[in-house]
Amino acid sequence: MPKVKELMETMEYGPAPEASTEARAWIAARPVIGHYINGQFTAPEGETAEVVNPATDEVLTRVGLGTSAEVDAAARAARLAFPQWAALPGHERARYLYAIARHVQKRERFLSVLEVLDNGKTIRETRDIDIPLVARHFYHHAGWAEVMETEFPGHAPLGVCGQVIPWNFPLLMLAWKVAPALAAGNTVVLKPADLTPLTAYAFAEICAEVGLPPGVVNIVQGDGATGAAVAGHPEVNKVAFTGSTEVGRIIRRQIAGSGKKLSLELGGKSPFIVFEDADLDAAIEGVVDAIWFNQGEVCCAGSRILVQEGVAPRFFAKLGARMATLRVGDPLDKTMDMGAVVSRRQLARIDALLKTGEAEGATLHRAPGALPERGAFCAPGFFTGTAPAHTVSQAEIFGPVATTLTFRTPDEAISLANDSRYGLAASVWSENINRAIEVAAKVKAGVVWINATNLFDAGAPFGGYRESGFGREGGRAGMGEYLARPAAPGKPRPAPAALTEVAPFTGPSDRPAIDITAKLYIGGKQARADGGQSYAVLGKGGVAIGQAALANRKDVRNAVEAAGKAGDWGGVTAHNRAQVLYFLAENLSQRAAEFTAALAAAGSPKPAEEVEATIRRAFWYAAQADKFDGAVTATKSAHVTMTLHEPFGTMGLVAPDEAPLLGLMSLILPALAMGNRVVAVASQSAPLIAARLYQVFETSDIPGGVVNLLTGERDALAKTLAEHDDVAALWYCGGAEGAAMVEAASAGNLKPVWPDTTLRDWLNPSQGQGRDFLHRATQVKTVWLPYGA
Amino acid sequence: MTHDFPRMTGTAFTPDWFESVSVNRPAAERRAASLPARRTVKKEWQAAWLARAITCIDLTTLAGDDTAGRVQRLCAKARNPLRADLLEALDLQELTVGAVCVYPTMVPHAVKALEGSNIPVASVATGFPAGLTPLPLRLAEIRYAVEQGAQEIDIVITRELALTGQWQALYDEIRQMREACGPAHMKAILATGDLKTLTNVYKASMVAMQAGSDFIKTSTGKEEVNATLPVSLTMLRALRDFRDLTGQMVGFKPAGGLKTAKDAMTWQILMKEELGTRWMMPDLFRIGASSMLGDIERQLEHHVTGRYSAANRHAQA
């Protein structure tokens, strides 16, 4: 023991280990971590893998790798448990969730230590962040269970939820998945990460301890193969995944066409933007919380630091000095800022990326000081001299190293911030509220922190834009992912009645006085089909009533490009958009007789009603344009936390074959009302209505490019739209086969797809319009604004 | 006070260094809240830190009923802050507090009581605590205290000048006070509880340093809110910026509201993390406190004996 007198001079911290006796004894009593199926702890049937403490390299225990039979047993147990669990009054479910929250709190220290041993993260973080947030999440959702009947009238749970979670916040991610699922009345099959199975097992013991009915929560341990079995299981109605974008894509393709609801919370390369008027010392601490939190193994880590050029030298000097004070070492030591990364394999991956960064010419700054000899430790660092083109500026490092860039103006900051395929989070530092809020509005990210970073609360929705996934976790939006309004039972939608034959039609024909040319409508202009082809359109009794332009993939490309250039539409006031929609209704009303006749000729069963319903629908969405509001959420004190409903940008809309006017407009109107631009594919069998519609659009002050109309072979155009990386969301009204095709094709940029495969009664407002359409036309952005003079 | 660095001289009035600064309060509060949770000291290290804290205490009495007898008692405690058996157990021979801090008229009593101890006498001055007596009188008060033997002078700034943004005027006043101090070290009390915003705290800190303050100090102990962690953090950052800009080293003294051994360690952690180990030593760090020492004594006795201690086992100040 060193002498007090000497220590008075060195003033070192000394060791401050958290006791791990209980957690280690618990592990020792469990030589294999098995599954929790139907309320039973089961020994694994299949292979097992080592569970390693990454801070010491010691093997703690083994974990079962769930077989498909085990997944099957779990899914069937969940299915059996579902009806009773869903039928419980909300208050009863609330009591279970409340009990879980209480028990998590009673086991706070034990769970904190267990998480450290399993994951390598510091006790400070598990104790002060992970576990308190877990408890908070269950409390919050106990509340949702309690008030579900009144807050979500007409909604029902989805059934069995298959949930696959990552290793970076093992128990917290479990809570994010399990709490809303149970609150809404679903049952769960959850697969923890094979690297970090321990706290999920302890959680299963808590479920048993509180007497949760068997089968409501099932936990199957395992690796990627087990996860695939969970996602792919036919009893599973909803898949929720948090992890890498790469695996998210695999799951998207795997379950395409299955009818399963999907939410994905994937990777990120989130910008951390520092303006010259920021409180620089505050921003430096922000970096600590952004990239040196949880060893940088955070999907929303502020990993791309953008600094205004004038303050960059000072900022980097301060950052280097601050980095030097970080303490890296034994994560059970209460004085450590960083522990070990999750595995040696992850460490090697990080190191390889850092080498690439240096090879590409960037300078890597690392914290001084020796790292422990054993364990997967990674020194914190940051790059200078990185350019957007560098690998490390684009790839997610998932380690404690940020890249940096400088910018000159706010415009440039926004442009650099959005120069990414991801869109999970952003952090903005400025003491000028105008500037900060402008950036918050313009940055493409699901979560924006102003003068803060990595703030979380169960009431604040969390989730990404772009390839960071879709769906939200937390708050009202998060509950929405586990609920649905039961659809009216509809027949499967048949294939389009008419083919797109390009050869001259020799059958009977209803010739107009002057031949009419129906074109495409792209960028506010009537355009001939790129391929120079048309197809015959047949009306009642198989009589040809005209020719429609046959669009091909280049027309889709042109239309998406035109939509991309009409970006101002999302920025005009909601009042303006409403006015345009009212004007559209007015102009449609003036030509009601003509549209009625055209619909009648096309074979529409109730042409007059269809036109009238379209006009009403335009009014309804015009009314909603300035009423489908976000909210201010109660999170932490002295924080304004806003949830905004933002448009996606460019949406692809594939109209149903039925109700050619109303079906098409029922998609276009909500998308426009919320500020999206659209590329719409008209009814394949009755496309001529589109050629009349664009004349109405032209006279209704809709800016060019906001609506683009294509006619032609539905599924060919839908596929191109689904694959297009600049289309941010897709609604597809077609058959089951087509839905599977577009869902699989959407995996490229992971756009959310709304597959609608059963016939709707579009005339019925409860089927053809509503808030569900508005929800699906928007994405939630959560903006955190802490305040204090 | 002996330094291994040159005494700070201040700089010309340089508003560029602070005019555009804006301190973000929520961010400062987050850092202040997370810091004590990020660090801790245990066992021998904790004993060493607490012993070090004793050497940084400005043992203070600033009450209307101070008398020569009261001051003598305080000085006796300043000489013997820890029971002899505890000193021996910790293998520490000499341990004294940083200074004794009194009102100007009490300086002669303190000087006499501390004769031969090397413990400096600090005196508040300049119309403490409000600082609203005429400037010539405030300067005269400084000179009086120095003449009586005070080696350190704790001055108060004119809050009005800070609250109304008259930074040049504030600079000029503090400059004159520094001149009046002569060889005595000057601690500038910002009365941060009156300044309210952290941005004001930063600016006032910078002006006080430019004007030549050897220390900047949070509070008189008489404001509604005394030393807080966010305020201290803001002052330390100003101090660090000043060091980076000038190379000059300025000390820091939180005062008022620090009562426990835990408080002492929290502020020590703050000093170490924001400025480094050098700033934990008494020539750059003082704690203005009267009751904290008692708690530290109890903690150190616990460290030595393993039993929790009671106040009546330690000599009163």
Structural account:
- Chain A is of the alpha/beta class.
- Chain A has 3 domains: about 20-265, Aldehyde Dehydrogenase, Chain A, domain 1; about 270-465, Aldehyde Dehydrogenase, Chain A, domain 2; about 520-780, Aldehyde Dehydrogenase, Chain A, domain 1 (3-Layer(aba) Sandwich), CATH 3.40.605.
- Chain A has a 10-stranded mixed β-sheet, sandwiched between helices. A 6-stranded mixed β-sheet of chain A has the order 9-8-7-10-11-19, with helices on both faces. In chain A, strands 29-28-27-30-31 form a 5-stranded parallel β-sheet, with helices on both faces.
- Chain A is globular and about 105 Å long.
- The two termini of chain A are about 45 Å apart.
- The model of chain A has no long low-confidence stretch (mean pLDDT about 95).
- Chain B is of the alpha/beta class and about 325 residues long.
- Chain B has a single domain, classed as Alpha-Beta Barrel (TIM Barrel), CATH 3.20.20.70.
- Chain B is built from 13 helices and 8 strands.
- Chain B has helices spanning about 25-40, 45-55, 70-80, 85-90, 105-115, 135-145, 160-165, 165-180, 190-195, 200-210, 230-245, 260-275, 290-305, and strands spanning about 55-60, 100, 120-125, 150-155, 185-190, 215, 250-255, 285-290.
- An 8-stranded parallel β-sheet of chain B has the order 7-6-5-4-3-2-1-8.
- In chain B, helix 6 runs parallel beside helix 8 and helix 8 (about 165-180) packs across helix 10.
- The longest helix of chain B is centred in the last third of the chain and has 18 residues, at about 230-245.
- The radius of gyration of chain B is 19 Å and the shape is globular.
- The two termini of chain B are about 25 Å apart.
- Classes of the chains: A alpha/beta (about 800), B alpha/beta (about 325).
- Chains A and B meet through helix 1 and helix 11 of A and helix 1, helix 2 and helix 12 of B.
